[in-house]
Hints:
Number of domains: 1
Number of helices: 8
CATH architecture: 3-Layer(aba) Sandwich
Order of helices and strands: EEEHEEHEHHHEHEHEEH
Helix content: 25-40%
Number of strands: 10
Amino acid sequence: xxxxxxxxxxxxxxxxxxxxxxxxxxxxxxxxxxxxxxxxxxxxxxxxxxxxxxxxxxxxxxxxxxxxxxxxxxxxxxxxxxxxxxxxxxxxxxxxxxxxxxxxxxxxxxxxxxxxxxxxxxxxxxxxxxxxxxxxxxxxxxxxxxxxxxxxxxxxxxxxxxxxxxxxxxxxxxxxxxxxxxxxxxxxxxxxxxxxxxxxxxxxxxxxxxxxxxxxxxxxxxxxxxxxxxxxxxxxxxxxxxxxxxxx
Length: 248
């Protein structure tokens, strides 16, 4: 059984933000896909720099919708979303791509480029910001080593298992040292030992100042980890700490 993972909350020397400059802020946000039905309803929350937060809830509770709103893949029907000080609704022209360069995302379906190698997939996050090729290769190798896949860097994604593809997606999200990390079920295809290792990597990113939000329905992961939990129920958010978030 995997060792208990400790969530490291921002301490006195941590770069955690005050509420006024928290990189993730939502005020009265609602999102509907069908008339009379709300995926999210009047959601308000803040996540500071260096903070690690679990987002949980039943299947269909709105976890993926909330994450999509934060990286501007969706627009809210009501309310205001500020990400890294920018109002999502007012991003125009190159505003969305510029914002996304500062946000790492682990997608539930991975979104890997099947005709590129694992190394090239992870390197995309650095290519878009103009990172020198030699530095890119070094950082990609280190990111893949951290997820145990440096020896598969010349393989293509379709030759990997689902769990390996998931770890490639995690490496790609972390390699650029993003200011915000959004992870949608990042351990869904992994065993408990690998899951703990991936969560520890994300916690290390939080220690370096990244605001981390991990969406999961894995109750055992929540029970092992403790810490801040945002639970989605009936379109709204209920906040709890540690194991209580897993039992809701």
